[in-house]
Specification:
The chain is mainly alpha-helical and about 140 residues long. The protein has helices spanning about 5-20, 25-40, 50-65, 75-80, 85-100, 110-125, 135-140.
Amino acid sequence: MTNDTRSLKAVFEEITQIGARMRLSDATLQKAKEFYKTFTTCGDKTSRGKSHRVWAAAAIYIACKSLNMARSPKELATYANCTARAVNRATRDMTALLKKAGKSAQTGVVDPREYVVRLCMAACMQGTLTSHLTSESMVFALG
């Protein structure tokens, strides 16, 4: 097994682990793996110097953006156990190389209401908004 194959397998395992922690769909994980495989086959050795976790988080972020799913780099960094800055940099490098390869990641604009719902659900899980937020008021607020 060559180093490239071993590295690809390691990143795929990281994508699967991070995706399981985030409860992402198989389609999202498959898209992230496709983006990373395209990124590595472009010929540049730009994946060197960053951890597999950072590249896996960047690939998942690009896949989520292309599927219009609300995930922030900070959230991905938390699940991947790295910094949001590293995820942002890896995402920038990966999208630039994907564009150069002709496989542009069509990243749409995520509806801000999805972030609000996720924020409210996270606050409810921590117990800060238990009695103040009902499903009816949330639907009313989001219109």
